[in-house]
Structure formats: C-alpha cells, structure tokens
Prior knowledge:
- Two copies of one chain form a homodimer.
- By secondary structure, chain A is α+β, with helices and mostly antiparallel strands.
- Chain A contains eight helices and ten strands.
- In chain A, the strands form three sheets. In chain A, strands 2-6-4-5 form a four-stranded antiparallel β-sheet. Chain A has a three-stranded antiparallel β-sheet with strand order 1-7-3.
- The longest helix of chain A has 27 residues, at 124-150.
- Chains A and B meet through strand 5 and helix 4 of A and strand 5 and helix 4 of B.
Amino acid sequence: MTALEHPLDPLVIKFRQHTALKAEDEAAIRGLPAIVRWVEPGSYVVREGDRPTDCALLLSGFACRHKLTMDGDRQIVSIQIPGDPLDLQHLFLDIADHNVQTLSRAELAFLPRSALQAITLAHPNIARAVSISNAVEASVFREWVLNVGRRDGRRRIAHLLCEFAVKMDVQGLSDGAGYSFPMTQEQLGDATGLTSVHVNRMLRALESEGLLKRHGRSIAFPNADALRSVADFNTRYLHLGRQET
Amino acid sequence: MTALEHPLDPLVIKFRQHTALKAEDEAAIRGLPAIVRWVEPGSYVVREGDRPTDCALLLSGFACRHKLTMDGDRQIVSIQIPGDPLDLQHLFLDIADHNVQTLSRAELAFLPRSALQAITLAHPNIARAVSISNAVEASVFREWVLNVGRRDGRRRIAHLLCEFAVKMDVQGLSDGAGYSFPMTQEQLGDATGLTSVHVNRMLRALESEGLLKRHGRSIAFPNADALRSVADFNTRYLHLGRQET
DNA sequence: CGTTATCTTGACCGTCGTCAAACAGGGTGG
DNA sequence: CCACCCTGTTTGACGACGGTCAAGATAACG
Lengths: 245, 245
C-alpha cells in the first residue's frame, strides 16, 4: 500500500521466512527485471518437455504442479499459493519434467533464468535462500508420496487440507472465517490419487464428522486439531521458520 | 585399483555426470575430511527429527529414504545406490524430515556438514553440482507421487524396477546378466504403497508375461522395452547427462 | 435465463488388503 | 551332518476401499 511497495516483495518475504537477507541482497532481488502479467485460470506456466527461459513467481491466485501418465491420468504433485516461486525447481535443470498450471486467474512475475542464476552467484545469501526453498519443496514431495502411498482417502484429503491451511496462514492469507479453496473436487482427486466421486464421498464424511464446513468455494475448519489428528498431520516437513545452520 | 584412487571419487564422478568441474573443484572435494565406515543392513544413517551434523555418501551397498505414518505404516520415498549422496537433501535444513536406512551391508563416507557448506561457498561449480543433484532428486520424488497415485500395482512395480535398472546402468553397476536387487518383497511394497502379498502377485504376473526373470536375490529383464512400455517409463525425469544452462 | 461445469447420489464391480497357512532357503548350533 | 530356526516367499479365501457408470440436482456464468 505504500509507495515503497515492489512487485517482487513477496519473494523477499518468502525468502526471509527461511533465512536472513542483508539489505543489499533484498535490493538485488528488487533489481531483477520482472515482467508482471495476469493470466486466465488453466494457463500453463511451464510444460513438461519445455526448456524454460523464465522463472515465474505467483503474486496472486493459485497454481499447481502436475504430471500425466501415458494414458492421460493426471497427478497433481503440489499446490502453489501467492508468494510461491513456480519454477525455481527448474533453475538448474535444462528440460522441464512436469507441468505448472494455474488453478485460478493469477498474477505472475516472470524473471529471466539467467538473471536469477547470476544473482545467486553474486549473493551467497540468495543462493542459500533458493537452496532452502527447493529443499523445502522436495520435503513436501516426500510427504505427498507418503500421503498418497499410505493413507486412506479420508486421511489423504484431510492432510492436503491441513497443508493448504498452514501454508495460507503462514502467508497471512486467511481471515478468521476460513479459506477460499481454489480446487474443484476433480482437482482434489488428481492431487490425492482418487476419483472425484470418491473425493465427494470423503468430503461429506469429513463434513458430517464436523471436521470441516463448506459454503460454495470456501472452506472452514471448526475443529482444526481434530482434523490434524485425523490427517496424521505434523508441520515438521514444512520446515517453518529460519534454518540456522 | 590405482594408487590415485580416493574414497570420495564416487562423489566426483556423480557430480561430473551433471556438470563440469575444474581440477581445483575436484581437488577441493577430495580434500574434504571423510570418515569411511562399514555398517550392517538396516542401519539408520539419518532419523526423522535428527539435527544432522554429517552428510553421508553411499560408497557400496544400498539404502533408502522413508517416512512413517503415526500408526507405523512405512513409505519408502527413494532408493539409493552406490555413489549416491544420502543427505544432501538436508544440507540446508536444520531438522531431518525423513529417515535414511541401509537396505544391505553398506560402506559409508561421512562428511561434516560444515565442511560441505564451506566448499559450496568457495566453489560455485560445486554449489551448482549440489543444486543439480538435489533438483534431480526432487524430480524423482515427483515421479514417485505420480507412480503411487496414478498407476496400478503392476505398472508401479515395473516402473520402480525400470528406474532401478537405469540408475544402476548409469553407475556402471550392471553386468550383462542382470541386477542384484536389494529389496525384499515387503520393502518393495513399502516403496510402491502396496502390501507384500500383492507385490508377490504382481511380480509373478510380470514374470509369467516374460517381462522379468528372477533367481534368488537377482533379477533380469529379458525384454526391457516391453517392461518400460508396461511401466509407462520415460527417463526424462532422471535428467541424465550434463545440464548446460 | 439458458448453458455448462461442478457436485451429489446410487448400484455395481474390481483391485488390492487381510488373515492364515504352507513352503523354501540360509544360517547356527548341537 | 543334520535339526532347527528365522526370514522371506508363495498361495488361497474372503472382504473392503475405492473405481466405474450413469443419472439427477446445484451452482456458476455469460
């Protein structure tokens, strides 16, 4: 809201959640040549097989990473919320191994890969921030393997919702009432390895247990502790807070 | 076999698969203070919740990363073969989010975390190599989410076997005959989100289709192309070869 | 206000889990 | 050398979680 606001502030804020940045580091980030653009829901930011030239940052709206099997089944492997870098994962890889697609209308900042690589060479703190960001995302992927591989449908969905809620809270994107949830039940199925029909059954089961409340596209958790317990949810894998050593 | 051989050569070789290193970079790696030790099968190298002080490299034998649900179900999230770094994943994270455990008798080289961090600061090429190594591992986790989430038991197992074979080939660890496979059927189940009983069924199904042959602890693939086709396997996610940009 | 996407529900079916028992192999010790 | 484990593999019967198909109800949206 102030005149000092900069489009890349969300990236600075995200990095500072995990590591200390000096004023010069932050200045260097703000000095990156960013192109900001709004895109429609369902827009591809990265496509598997692409040779990425830019790295996008999600300023507002929601996106997901996903992969497809040969016969067209889709698996969403992570959900991105405002402030998330969308393809730091590919900063050191030539060919994209998965797709990144928006789930809603979204505002993106595009940063040239070369500029980002250069900045990590010149600023060790930024290199460190990028490494931590990617390491945390890798940890989330591991948790998702566990989620999809070893929890039943009800717990899987509960776990995904807990993760979403915590990430939104950390970004300061939740009002007291609840969350505006960006996924259809079909997409929820793609993220949990279930069908939309079964997602519906489990969602209503959770609702009838009093673990969540839905009105339209928004969702609330009247008893977050109970939900976390059902979900077998522990925030450790999100590595919240400064990584000191 | 020569006098010039060094315990950390496998790490140098691994890094060189993905990026160019100068002589001084390699010298710096070989200069790291490594402690080499043999451990028994089932030894924990890292435990979830630990604050790691060392980074282990797997010199010989096999290991896996895994996580546990609250009620004790195990999910293996990756398999490590000789030459693999075992917890570069935690180099920038304070608290371990998963376990690393040997699947067989194994020879490990332990490197102090601090020394590794220092070397990445002094040698940009090594920093890059570490980033690439971690990025490739993250890509493998994504593929595992897809594997466990969207493929049936038969394809899941076939996919895991294909990945194992390719990684062994790249490391030059396969003779023409086949592979010595380090996992029990129970562990294979933990890696694919199945039970050992169902793993057995699918393994015999694949065998009766002529897609694999087993004698004791070793496995061969008489028709690798057909197996890859069943597995929906594509090497792209392994990012084999130099990452140039 | 019509059109389309999304959600909801029911009936039915298949993959995979559970439980249990038999079997093979490899190591150990008497 | 053989008996005896212990671990891992193999098999069968049965049941459940979740998939499939199809229809109808709601909500989103131009």
